[in-house]
Amino acid sequence: MPRQDPELTAMATPEAESLWPEPASQERWNRGAWLFRDSTLRGLEILLDEAFVIPGTGFRFGLDGIIGLVPGLGDVIAGLLSLVIPLAAWIRGLPYVTLVRMAANLGIGVLVGSIPLFGDIFDVAWKANRRNYQLLARHLGEPRRHTWRDWGFLALLAGALGLIFAVPIILVVCFLAWLIGH
Question: Residues 48, 129: contact at Cβ < 8 Å?
Fold first, then answer.
């Protein structure tokens, strides 16, 4: 019978379990845990969408609208900053319906925001980060509960995407029919 090493036996006791190092994957997630706390996410949402007020109006805007004024890269940088809230939602296990809504909010903001001037005004009014934070807070308070608005939004999004893909196909078919007819 092989002899047992006393050091290994001592390390296997419940009291010594804390001596074992955490797996590398756990360390990696714990290092950035502060980024996904509710208070940090709320602060990010305020910074990006509501940090400043136009005096006398009560109209709020944030760094997202200011960064978006930079031609080209501004909307991309703001969009990358805005990914933190949906990433936190994914890590916390929010349903895919909610994650798709968050992605759509963000996508609409980045796409329309890339149009010079009009897009920047739209982006300030759209407040994708505020919408996404509210979705996160709502679903953490009531996990796995979807409202008719969630499903309606997804149906509307699917219909819009269907139209976006169908219009070029219809135009090509019409053009080909016109070419064959002449």
Answer: yes
pLDDT in tens, 8-28: 444 444 444 444 455 555 565
**Residue 90: both structure tokens together:** 């994914």
Domain chopping of the chain, boundaries = 18-146, 152-182
* Token pair recorded at residue 153: 């939004």
Alpha helices in the chain (DSSP H): 6-11, 24-31, 38-49, 63-67, 73-82, 84-91, 96-113, 118-126, 128-141, 148-181
Residues in the chain: 182
Report the distance separating Cα 145 and Cα 95, nearest Å.
9
Tens-place pLDDT, residues 154-170: 788 777 767 766 777 88
Q: Is the entire prediction scored with pTM above 0.70?
A: no
